[in-house]
Amino acid sequence: MLNIKALTFDVFGTVVDWRSSIIAEGEAFAAGRGGALAEVDWNAFALAWRARYQPAMERVRAGETGFVKLDLLHRQNLEEVLDEFGLADLDEADRQNLNLIWHRLQPWPDTVAGLARLKQRFILATLSNGNVRLIVDMARHAGLPWDMVLGAEIAGHYKPQPQSYLNSAAVLDLEPSECLMVAAHNSDLVAAGTVGFATAFVCRPTEYGPDQDFDQAAENDFDFVADDFLHLAAQLGC
Amino acid sequence: MLNIKALTFDVFGTVVDWRSSIIAEGEAFAAGRGGALAEVDWNAFALAWRARYQPAMERVRAGETGFVKLDLLHRQNLEEVLDEFGLADLDEADRQNLNLIWHRLQPWPDTVAGLARLKQRFILATLSNGNVRLIVDMARHAGLPWDMVLGAEIAGHYKPQPQSYLNSAAVLDLEPSECLMVAAHNSDLVAAGTVGFATAFVCRPTEYGPDQDFDQAAENDFDFVADDFLHLAAQLGC
């Protein structure tokens, strides 16, 4: 019954492992430097930074400000996290470098091989809250073969607002039902499904670390449920 | 002095050979069919179709209508050309198939190898009047490794309007001077240069056929002048 022509991907957590990437980058950044930097728990730092993600976008979604690129929200959140971790004396170059970690996130082990298989049969687009330059830099860094970068910046709205999905489908000249939203987050898929997208849950049970106790399984009747991108490719006949 | 981070490409004529592609597709389409189809001069057909391109966009640029995707302008132009060539009885499926030729255009012989070299060092984006789905389909068909599809649909303005260039640079978070516009058309490069883009003329002297008597050489002081994409890659140190 499904007539899927494009796969649209959530990126942070679904395609890339932001937590491990920030830990690795943070530890490399701090290596050989003393003071408060030597004391940072980078796992806690990553989680604290990410915890400010939804509240920052919510200010945009609520109309308190016009659309702002995620790079800027990440930077505003970084300022707060640096204060919280006693790193208020980092200079501007260090702050810029840390903020660009999001442009250099590492894929999950199955990501690149899975996308290569899926691309043989479907248009592959991002449908992320990341801004275009962030997603483009990440793709070049990690070797992600997107046909198109869509999502919040192109749509002018942050997920889970309906326009983020609907405007993205419209750019591809596709009906929502011709787009399969791929995400590791139940809430993203529920929102996409509500506006008519097909849905695929890909489980990333350690996105937030070994103690993660949410998004461990599909909680709705999604069209596909997969352990990783290779498993999804197999289900889609790729 | 240049600090180029992205190459932005004109597509029709610069990246792909639309004339030869339409001739080949048209001849294959007509093969074995009689009537007026058997009599069509597909070179003349291609040129007639393309001749309606700028006037159609000019209606959008002049504000006579809101922004319309190029696929629709191509289709409106196709109706006129079919009438002109005595093909008014073609059915809807044939018309849709012909209009999609623009999604299946073939690259010039140097295009794919040249882009692969240029991609090692620069972000590669389209900055075309083609709509996103057209450019995405073409890229998948021809193997064009774009990092991002920009241009008219994303910018909301057709070239050579300044916003088409400036909005495209803004999506990449780049200054115009960090973008190198690559085109086979002097007028495109003059418009890009006026808003601060660096410029590269790549000569495609037979885009309109062996008798083409314009755009045979760079007519302004562009930053680069190249015989093809491999020559451009060499000049850019790729």
What CATH calls the topology of the largest domain in chain A is: Rossmann fold
Return residue spans of chain A where pLDDT drops below 50 for at least 5 consecutive residues.
none
User: What oligomeric assembly is this protein in?
Assistant: homodimer
The first-to-last residue Cα distance of chain A is: 18 Å
What's the level 1 CATH class of the largest domain in chain A?
Answer: Alpha Beta
Radius of gyration of chain A: 18 Å
CATH superfamily of the largest domain in chain A: HAD superfamily/HAD-like
Q: Give the SSE string of chain A.
A: EHHHHHHEHEHHEHEEH
Sheet with the most strands: spatial strand order of chain A: 3-2-1-4-5-6
Number of domains of chain A: 2
- Number of DSSP helices of chain A? 11
Report strand % of chain A: 5-15%
Average predicted local confidence, pLDDT of chain A: 97
| Molecular shape of chain A | globular
CATH architecture of the largest domain in chain A: 3-Layer(aba) Sandwich
- Helix percent of chain A reads 40-55%
**Main beta sheet strand tally, sense and closure of chain A:** 6 strands, parallel
Secondary structure topology:
2 copies of one chain form a homodimer.
Chain A: E1 6-9, H1 18-30, H2 42-51, H3 53-61, H4 70-84, H5 92-99, H6 111-119, E2 123-128, H7 132-142, E3 148-151, H8 152-155, H9 162-171, E4 179-183, H10 186-194, E5 198-202, E6 224-226, H11 229-235
Helix pairs in contact in A: 1-2, 4-5, 6-11
